[in-house]
Structures are given as structure tokens and as C-alpha cells.
Amino acid sequence: MANWPQVSIDIEKEFNMCFACGQKNPIGLKLNFDWDGKAARAEFTPNEFHQGWSGLVHGGIISCLLDEAMSYAALFEGVNTITAKMQTRFRHPAQIDEPLIITASLTKKTRKLAQAKAEISLKDGTPVADSIATMFIFNQGEEGAKSNA
User: Fold this and answer.
1) Residue 70 DSSP label
2) Is residue 99 assigned to a domain?
């Protein structure tokens, strides 16, 4: 990690232009996560702009949904993170115009790292994809997403 580049991340700025959750990003996904005290949860209905093969959601969009969910789980737990490593398993193709349920939670937190898991399923519970990630903690705030989301 000694070779990890020093990057300035301004956590005080609004999230409005984030591709995944920015509500003012004209091409963004506009995700809105809720927290039940244990897990972050959002719903997303992909459309034709989110497809890879005709009628199917692109795997990169699926990965983006999982990554954002795990980041929000960390935010809701009071830490700001950036993903260091992520492993995704695709289990069932997702079709465009079909609502997806995204959930994530932290599984471990140390002083410098957080680990999380996330899942995407169809409304009937069919698993679409799941992921685990290791994330660098770059600022351990007391308010987390409660003040930013």
C-alpha cells in the first residue's frame, strides 16, 4: 500500500454529480439508499440505456449498483471509503425494465479497511448478482451518510 497514490477526496462536496447516486447527473442512475440499521437498500429499474446484449442489463451497470450499495453501507456505518478490491458473481441475467432490489451491509471494519457484501435480486427474490469488497477507509467521520446522503 506504500505505492497507493495520494488522492485528495473532498467529502464536503455534495454527491449531486455522482454517476450512481447523484440526483442532478443527467446520465446517472439516481440511486436512493435507505438504511434499516443493518443494511443499505435501494430499488432500481434499468432501461434501454443500461443494456449490454439486447434487452439485458450490462454487467458493468450491475457491478456499479453493487459497488455503490457497499459504499453506502459503509457511509451509513459512519465511514468514508473507496473500493480497493471487489469480487462479483453474476447469477441470473437481469432484463431491462425489470425492477431490481439492491442490498448491502458491512461485514468487518478495522481502522484502515472495511469489508462489505451486497446482493441484487428481482422482486420475486431471484438472485441476480452478489459481491464482496474490501474498501480503504479514508475518513472516519461521526456523521457518515446521515449528513451527506
Assistant:
1) H
2) yes
Give the domain extent around 73: 34-148
Total domains present in the chain: 1
Determine the Cα–Cα distance for residues 121 and 123; give it in Å rounded to an integer: 7
pLDDT digits (tens, 9 = 90+) for 93-133: 999 999 999 999 999 999 999 999 999 999 999 999 999 99
Angle at the Cα of 32 from the Cα atoms of 42 and 132, rounded to 5 degrees: 50
115-121 contacts, C-beta under 8 A, 24 or more apart: 116/70, 116/73, 116/74, 117/70, 118/66, 118/67, 118/69, 118/70, 118/73, 119/66, 120/62, 120/65, 120/66, 120/94
17: in domain = no
What pTM did the predictor assign?
0.88
The answer as to whether 9 is a domain residue is no
pLDDT, the chain, mean: 89
Domain CATH for 131: 3.10.129.10
